[in-house]
Amino acid sequence: MISRVMSAELAEHAGQRVTIAGWVHRRRRLKSVSFLIVRDRSGLAQVVAAEPESVLPVEETVVRVTGVVSANPQAPGGAELVGPEIEVLAEPAKAPPFDLYRPVVPASLPTVLDHAPVALRHPLLKAALRISAASVAGFRRALDGLGFTEIHTPKIVASATESGANVFGIDYFGRPAFLAQSPQFYKQAMVGVFERVYEVGPVFRAEPHDTVRHLAQYTSLDAELGFVRDHRDVMAVLREAVHGMVESVRGLAVAVPEVPEEIPAIHFTEAQRLTGQDEPDLSPEQERWLSEWAVREHGSEFLFVTGYPMAKRPFYTHPDPDREGYSNGFDLLFRGLELVTGGQRLHRYEDYLAAIEGPLEPYEGYLQAFAYGMPPHGGFALGLERWTARLTGAANIREVTAFPRDLHRLSP
Ligand code: AMO
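A: This is the predicted complex of the input protein with aspartyl-adenosine-5'-monophosphate.
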């Protein structure tokens, strides 16, 4: 049996008889010959057939094709397969909801999402998911290089971590439980074990808003590190993580941003002054304006906003020791959108006892970490779908999420 060759490697086999396998991406007739474009994990291969187009297998048929490789500068990858024997491995039961071979996705977002298992085969939609995968690989590589250990923490938990409002409740063997809104408590506890940890995993938010930047489940790229001076050490690690992600997508994404050696940072109060607002949080419009300002003033597509008011940050946030009412918490804006939240945390047991409102019982497991000694620490979380959307220019994060979960969508 001849072993399978990837479409991207065809040119290396010019003159040889080889076998490729994949899906029929497109059948087409040109002058006197028919072409079968076969799609595999590496790309597209052109097969030249003698038969008329109508007898060739239809789009999305799974095929194995054996033929002789012939150099042709016009073919994808500079080579094509001639004299093919086509073996059908699986016939589709249905036609795809739209032509997967069109250069631009010829369907609305709801159509794409309703047919995600097949729609995601479109090269553009697939490319976004590959960018997302490469970003995660870059994140891991950067943090591995900085002495971080990857952890995996429970997604079924006993208490809300971010706010009580948007938490999914579940029935856990007759007891109330929640889907984790973040790995916040566990990543902090694991600083007590490894000093530096990260996690890539799903988090759940019962988001009642139907926006282009919120999902009910998203992938959170979390990191947490001990022995920090304050939040600035966390921001420096985040810069390295983002830089690693950018390097990893070079060649895959079109508009790859520059990550400045030092990402510009402004204090929350300065951001308010610049935008002429005085709310305790930044609105999406302010975030957009500030991003444009950072490009204008600093030539940077990234901007840190530091020192958010304590009132708007979770209870585990460390206050700014020099500025009453403000925190050592920050956000990172990227291309007009909040991409990351992070900061320095409280680390003394008694500070937690004072910060937690209401009964301590749901927090008992978490509090153990602080009862047994924790160094000054901090961390951050980056929303993967927001990152990929901003990198690819997708207007809605659902376009770059394989099977998005939101207010209306639980399937496919
Ligand atoms: P926060 O709740 O701000 O912080 O979330 C961190 C980042 O996650 C992304 N994000 C979302 N993405 C898609 N859909 C959503 N519903 C959604 N909500 C948030 C954003 C956001 O910046 N524990 C803290 C992080 C930390 O301090 O370490 C937290 O979860 O990109």
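Residues 270 and 305 are 9 Å apart (CA to CA). The chain has a mean pLDDT of 96.
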